[in-house]
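Schema walk-through. Below, the input block comes first and the output block second. Nothing else is stored per chain. Lengths vary across the set, and this one has 264 residues.
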Amino acid sequence: MIDRARLEAIVREAGRIALDAWPGDGHACEVWDKLDTSPVSAADLAVDTFLKRELKALLPSAGWLSEETADDPARLAGSLIWLVDPIDGTRDFVRGRRGWAISVALVSAGRPLLGCLYAPVRRREDGGELWHAEAGQGAWRNGERLVATTRVDLPGARVPANAVMKEDADLVTVEQPNSIALRIAMVAADEADLVATLRWGFEWDIAAAGLIAREAGAAVTDAFGNPLNYNKRDPRAFGVLVSSPAMHEAAVARLAERARRMSV
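--- output ---
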């Protein structure tokens, strides 16, 4: 269907473009705030422009939805769409930290078919971390097949967070990349047991990493435990919840009241 080697080469080149402006290597990078006060950089836009050109050439029939491109409702008319976050974790990027990644997913009829995530600064001696998954075919990082966490008990679960709320004091914090996609991928790699957000987020944040986690064996839903759908007219979902299947129901139950309150 898709030349995967070509797709991975495109994503790696996008990472190189980002690195050419990454402050962690001493580069100056122009940064400003969007209307919602979230940061965006010139590197976000450069990567977005490159990916749009190359991915559309790779599969001309696919539509386009990206964090850094004005939404075109024409995307709703087709069944295939590229879902892209050119730099997920911009806050870490502009601060010279390593918790950012390029996120690319190909979606068909509302479901991810392919997911590719590239974090060029992590494991830099190995050329970065390249994650990929294909629906029904498993998930991989740097050529190694991923098997997600199989934890059964919610107490003691590893959560990528700097801190947890009082009612979650029985959870264990681990490294928290700013990139939500990387946090989700940590569950796929059995480096975390639970990722949960309780806010409205966008499809491009979670499509690729959600497929990677699911193909590794994790349960992936919105904050209420419902399936995630993509290429919707309103490309948002309330939260994401990723965990081992065995503890997913308990996690949904713990968060239910907070999710109801915060989704209004």
